[in-house]
Amino acid sequence: MKLFQSFSNRDDAPEIRRERHDLVRRRLEVRAVERLTPHMIRITLDGPELVGFTSPSPDDHIKIFVPGLDGSPTRRDYTPRRYDPQNGTLLLDFVNHHGGPAAAWARAARPGDRLEIGGPRGSQIISGPIDHWLLIGDETALPAIGRRVEALSVRTSVTTVVAVPGAEDEQVFTTAAHHAAHWVHRPMERADDGAGILAVLKNLKIPDRTFVWVGAETHVAKAVRQYLLDERRIPAQWIKASGYWVKGQADASVKDFGDAR
Questions:
Q1: pLDDT over 70 percentage in the chain
Q2: What's the pTM?
Q3: What is the DSSP string of 179-222?
Q4: Region 151-159: what's the mean pLDDT?
């Protein structure tokens, strides 16, 4: 079975264009709170300061500012799940896990509460001769994965491989693209174990001109990227892998590993 075509011409590879934005802090108000799944809380924000907000890339990150576990202010990275400039709303999805200040804030949030956000400071726009997308991640990457899947056109196909605690945590995305979804079930306590994701990948055909995006716990993201490079011989410029968090570290930020050019 042909797993992947190696491209000798680097000019034929995808490009990640970095776009900078003015860093703006905004005070927003909670409009609605929804328990999307047992482990995901969706917060709808609005407010006049949302005017001018921009988020052109599905894996953008903003900073949110919430009280830390000791009461002092702390900040966390979150992906804007959806921005609707016409309705003036911003959706953020929070993984509902114990021990994190952002999740604690989301569980307690009620309409009328305030949340301060900053950014995004920049975006990474992926473009090029991409025929297929392979999006790999865990529950923390679902906002970025969902945005990407929903934004794809009918001329594109996409495969997702996502690890979540159980079937009740799976999500459905509406898209014009052909979408094949693979879900891996494992407890949140084993979120740093990528064995389930790797098992799916080992039986997955990866077409030519597939761009692979990875967002997961840092150890998992590294292991998946290394497998794709070493075992599947996917060129590095066709992979973008990021550690979204580190098990045991409450304040870890998003870290990219060897972006495409």
A1: 93
A2: 0.92
A3: EEEEEEE--GGGTT--HHHHHHHHT----TTEEEEEEEEHHHHH
A4: 97
